[in-house]
From TrEMBL:
Annotated protein name in UniProt: High-affinity zinc uptake system membrane protein ZnuB
SUPFAM superfamilies xref list: ABC transporter involved in vitamin B12 uptake, BtuC
Keywords: Cell inner membrane, Cell membrane, Ion transport, Membrane, Transmembrane, Transmembrane helix, Transport, Zinc, Zinc transport
Organism: Aerophototrophica crusticola
Family as reported in the entry's similarity comment: Belongs to the ABC-3 integral membrane protein family.
Keyword Membrane: yes
TM region(s), chain numbering: 6-29, 41-74, 94-116, 128-148, 168-201, 213-233, 239-259
Domain of life, source organism: Bacteria
Subcellular locations according to the entry: Cell inner membrane; Cell membrane
Membrane topology: Multi-pass membrane protein
């Protein structure tokens, strides 16, 4: 197997193992639109990385983290409905990122690679970033996992029991921000939320408890990466969209599988 394919597969599986558990919480807490908003803001992070020369991944993490803090603050003000606020921030940051890149006349970038990913161009440095950053993000998720579950069941009860709801919510949004930075090279800014949500939604049908659902979501994500790479090579398809379509196909097929029902 060609070396670039091995790197693509290793990078994609690393992302799937990270996105699965995080995606479960996104599905439980109905935060898909939050993920979209943070993902769209990543293009502004790309522009910031080029402008300041600090590296694209650092720029994306910085901007996504800043947007996560801003969203947490604005939601607590309750001056706008959440979906309205997210819609404004999402499209404003995406448009600002596109405009900022267009104004850098000396810079020539492949916008489509950032929007839809370029997994076949993953480098050894990208693999180190994905796997090293993924371990840190999963460690952070493990630290807040039980409190996230408590908040998902009943946020008010969790607050009464002493769970620092605001800080746990913010911590989780920062973990999503870091994941978006890691995923940008694999599936792109516009598709990253799909890799969070679709495998988790597929796993939800078969999982008896949260931990099993997280493991199944990671497995379905890894299968989507493998199938998407295969489809891309055989049919000459764009790889990021092929991975997402593979995940969507597994979700559709999962509803054709009859479940055993206990009496």
């Amino acid at each position: 197997m060609d070396e670039f394919l091995v790197r693509a597969l290793v990078g994609g599986i690393g992302l799937a193992l990270l996105a699965g558990p995080l995606g479960c919480v996104v599905v439980w807490r109905r935060m898909a639109y939050f993920g979209d908003t943070l993902a769209h803001s990543a293009l502004l992070g790309v522009a910031l990385g080029f402008l300041l020369g600090i590296g694209l991944n650092i720029g994306v993490v910085a901007v996504c983290a800043g947007i996560a803090v801003l969203l947490t603050f604005l939601q607590e003000q309750r001056k706008l409905a959440s979906d309205t606020l997210l819609g404004i921030v999402s499209h404003s940051t995406l448009s600002l990122g596109l405009v900022a890149l267009a104004l850098m006349e000396s810079l020539r970038v492949d916008i489509l690679a950032y929007l839809f990913g370029d997994i076949l161009a993953v480098t050894p440095a990208d693999l180190a970033w994905i796997w090293g950053g993924g371990v840190i993000v999963l460690a952070g998720l493990a630290l807040v996992w039980r409190r996230l579950l408590a908040m998902t069941v009943d946020e008010d009860l969790a607050r009464v029991e002493g769970v620092p709801v605001r800080w746990i919510r913010l911590s989780f949004m920062l973990l999503i921000a870091a994941t978006i930075a890691l995923a940008m090279k694999i599936v792109g800014i516009l598709l990253v939320t799909s890799l969070l949500v679709v495998p988790a939604a597929t796993a939800r049908r078969f999982a008896p408890n949260p931990e099993v659902m997280a493991a199944l979501a990671a497995g379905f994500g890894a299968m989507a990466v493998l199938l998407g790479l295969g489809l891309s090579l055989q049919a000459d398809l764009p790889t990021g969209p092929a991975i997402v379509l593979s995940a969507a196909g597994m979700f559709a097929l999962s509803h054709l599988v009859p479940l055993r029902r206990t009496a």
